[in-house]
Specification:
mainly alpha, ABC transporter involved in vitamin B12 uptake, BtuC, 77% helix
Length: 288
Amino acid sequence: MNFYLSAVILGLAYCGMGLGIYISLRIFNIPDITTDGSYTLGAAISASLLSSGHSIPVVLLVVLVCGGLSGMATGLIHTRMKIDPLLAGILVMTALYSVNLAVMGRSNIPLLNTPTVSGILPFPGTESSRWMGAMLLFTIALCVLIGWILKTDFGLAMRATGNSEQMVRANGVNTNRMKVIGLGLANALTATSGFLVCQYQGFTDINMGIGIVIFGLGAVMMGEAILSFTKLIATGFHLAAVILGCVLFRVIIGAALTLGINPNWLKLVTAVIVLGVVGLPGIKLRMR
């Protein structure tokens, strides 16, 4: 039971990344590979600053700013240099590997006797219940914040940019600026997941972000698949579906591990799950 509780807690910790991928993929139609680097960047900064004695609020602020800058770098390369967004994300992700190594100073940083979000928030009970409360608080705060942003005039302009860029540009909106800010926001959310996960796991590793974008894509698509069985179309329900997808995806991976699957095959299992989520709807459609 504790194993599945840990899976739920990790799923909630990944919700920031899921919301970030939702913004880049579903609002701007950009498959942003920067996620792999910005996720590790958030964890690397968190581990370095926490082990140096900095407070949680200061660390979170630095993580948000640096994650946002990495996304904006991808946006600027795409919009200013007219480079394909997929290639721009790969370039920034590759550069971030060296940046993350420089930030950490070594490939792995254990977080022993350092403050965590579960320790500074006044949640009672066991350690697991405190972590659950902290992750729920962050998840709800991020969901409410993104839901509010997407309903503002700025958020509507972002959504319109993804739906019909030419029309929005004709109405005087700077679509390049929208893309840069949107990708910055998406990667700031992703870096927040790195900030949370490294504290819960108790360490940061330079390779912890490899393939994480596949997890995020699978979580978003799984949430959308669940939402497709309903008639709910409001933005808030889409965000809630992304969060549900993150948790469910992590629980499924946890269940696979409990069945005795070798952890070395975990990436393959993740890819198969994503393939199933993406491919099954098309197979059912052809069968009809």
